[in-house]
Design brief:
mainly alpha, 16 helices, 0% strand
Length: 283
């Protein structure tokens, strides 16, 4: 169910502003959705609760974040809005911010206690951002502790979703954040996804980060065997098979593996020449 549905036809009376009220879209919801800060502040001063709910449990903060209205989001949070409120579908304001690509709303929510990782069986902000190419939101989520390898059985990992959606920058951001280049959906790897989509740019990035071209999916097919026949993806993978990895690449992969995902952000602090640090960061 969409958090933008209008239930006014039910003619449900307005709630009293309590968190548990079963209200339809209130004037506060409308002000937040339209980014009307003055009206929103006026309504809050008149006694409207920042946590007033619609029938499907949408809060004004959900609306503000979906519309990328940062000032309204800040005002609502200051007035006590629950940054982890969930709709009946499990959607949080953070999910809406990532869906709209609002990096600032994403950061504001995280700074005020929003959980970067979704609960089990709830819509995942990092998957949503990855699927829509919102790399800034992905980066913010990772910096606040979101699991870059969060695996949802029917979707896979954020990296797999980014590759399936052909989102190059999100693919890079996730890999820079330490995403496991082999972890996709069941036995289907991100390389399989990129090959199927004939996305050579993503294939190149995955291979640079050490993707195994010999991994087999549930059908026992390697990535090259899932690429469209005679496609650029197939040609690239066949060429890569015939060429051994360079010593430089093997060294970089080995060093990054030794550092571990949790310490990759410390590379800039290493006492190494800047070109070498940039090399280790794939810059």
């Amino acid at each position: 169910m969409s958090d933008k549905l209008d239930f006014s036809w039910l003619d449900v009376p307005w709630g009293d502003g309590d968190l548990g009220s079963w209200a339809d879209r209130s004037p506060l919801h409308e002000a937040a959705a339209q980014g009307r800060l003055l009206a929103l502040r006026t309504l809050l001063s008149q006694g409207y609760s920042a946590n007033i709910l619609t029938i499907d449990h949408v809060t004004p903060l959900h609306e503000a974040c979906l519309g990328d209205h940062v000032a309204c989001a800040r005002a609502l949070i200051k007035a006590g809005a629950n940054v982890n409120a969930t709709t009946i579908d499990g959607v949080t304001p953070l999910f809406n911010a990532c869906s709209s690509g609002s990096v600032t709303c994403t950061e504001v929510l995280l700074e005020h206690g929003a959980k970067p990782q979704s609960e089990v069986c709830q819509p995942s902000p990092i998957h949503e951002a990855s699927s829509k190419g919102k790399s800034g939101c992905v980066e913010a989520l990772i910096s606040w502790g979101a699991d870059v390898d969060y695996d949802i059985p029917h979707l896979g990992t954020p990296l797999y979703i980014a590759c399936m959606s052909q989102q190059l920058q999100c693919t890079r951001t996730l890999l820079d954040g330490g995403a496991n280049v082999q972890k996709g959906r069941f036995l289907e790897t991100p390389l399989h996804a990129a090959a199927q989509k004939n996305c050579t740019e993503i294939l190149k990035v995955l291979l640079e980060f050490g993707a195994n071209i010999n991994s087999k999916n549930l059908e026992l097919k390697r990535p090259v065997e899932t690429a469209p026949p005679s496609s650029l993806a197939e040609g690239l993978l066949l060429l890569f098979e015939a060429m051994p990895r360079s010593l430089c690449q093997l060294c970089r992969l080995s060093i990054r593996e030794c550092l571990g995902r949790s310490r990759l952000h410390l590379i800039p602090q290493l006492h190494l020449p800047t070109p070498l640090k940039r090399f280790l960061q794939y810059r």
